[in-house]
Amino acid sequence: MNGDDLRAIRERRGEDQQGFASWLNGQLNRRYDRSRVSRWESGAERIPQQVAAFLKPSAPTVPQFRPQRRVVLAIANQKGGVGKTTTAVNLAFALSTLGLSVLLIDGDPQGNATVHLGQDPGEIEVARRGLYSVLRGGQPFDSILVPVCGGAFTLAPSSIGLAAAETELVAEPDNSLVLKEMLAEVKGRYDVVVIDCPPNLGLLTINALAASDLVLIPVQTEVFAGLGVPLLLETIAKIRRRSNPSLNVFGILPTMFSSRLTQDQASLREIQAHYEGRTRVLAAVPRATLFAQASGAGRPAIEADPRSNSVRAYADLARELAAHLQDAPQDSKASHVA
Ligand SMILES: Nc1ncnc2c1ncn2[C@@H]1O[C@H](COP(=O)(O)OP(=O)(O)OP(=O)(O)O)[C@@H](O)[C@H]1O
Ligand SMILES: [Mg+2]
What we know:
Blueprint: H1 3-12, H2 17-28, H3 34-42, H4 49-58, E1 71-75, H5 84-97, E2 102-106, H6 112-116, H7 121-127, H8 131-135, E3 146-148, E4 153-156, H9 163-168, H10 178-183, E5 192-196, H11 203-210, E6 214-220, H12 229-242, E7 248-255, H13 262-275, H14 289-296, H15 301-304, H16 312-326
Parallel strand pairs: 1-5, 1-6, 2-4, 2-5, 6-7
Antiparallel strand pairs: 3-4
Helix pairs in contact: 1-3, 2-3, 5-16
The structure holds adenosine-5'-triphosphate and magnesium ion.
């Protein structure tokens, strides 16, 4: 890779040399500045191998979307096992293939998104390179960020130590705004920040919602699928009134849908009828073993098998979100719902 190649990549990202240096720093955990980028582009200095290797796989990812705004999207449902993490990981990857710069924050002490992306939460715990160190240790976000999926996007990982934040934050003033405050440092570098929430409505979820512009609610397509969603919507409404008036629901995502099961069909119709005219009900994600297999292999299903019908709903969801970023805010279909 020569200086012209590097400049072309930077220009495709629509960034100046400082912005490009900041993006690289976030991806590679380095401390480059504008003048280094300038020297690489002019040929005055050799491009470091790590930078060249990182930029090479992402070079074909020509941005198709130049978003007019950036968003923070929380993926939340206090019900466990509905597909929040699977959605967060696959959506983050799908957004990156559209040329968007993406940060995925693992906001769950279970560290499932971290494991799903091939990272070791035990090592992260020992090295103090998880979200806990940012929320409680005052460490900058930059110090924990890791590139994942060959540099397609960036992960802020978590480990079990994050569980302590839930109780420790209770004593903090304005304890719902800690993540929002810390995120301000890095948010401007990413088109989309995705936050994977834990399965409860505790302080970590409240922090995620207070830091977000949009919420996506995965709902398993099963009997009584929507149970618990009204409480989540009530919580979202309270956060909107008290600290974050710009928070909106992006939509409901039916997950683990088996089209052959009459019960799943009935549940899907029920979800669609209930939310019609109030918020988007997105295309259902089918039930498929591919998701658990890919997660076991430490990668998103949509990266492992991009042509599978099972992952199409995530590709569509990414396009719908990207299109939303190009709309003027008043055109948005995102809604208050509650
Ligand atoms: N569409 C799907 N088809 C089949 N299995 C799926 C699908 N989506 C997720 N799963 C599997 O279901 C389980 C729960 O999914 P996931 O971890 O994404 O849910 P979650 O809501 O994040 O759970 P938690 O509340 O514990 O954080 C995982 O084993 C995952 O591999
Ligand atoms: Mg999860």
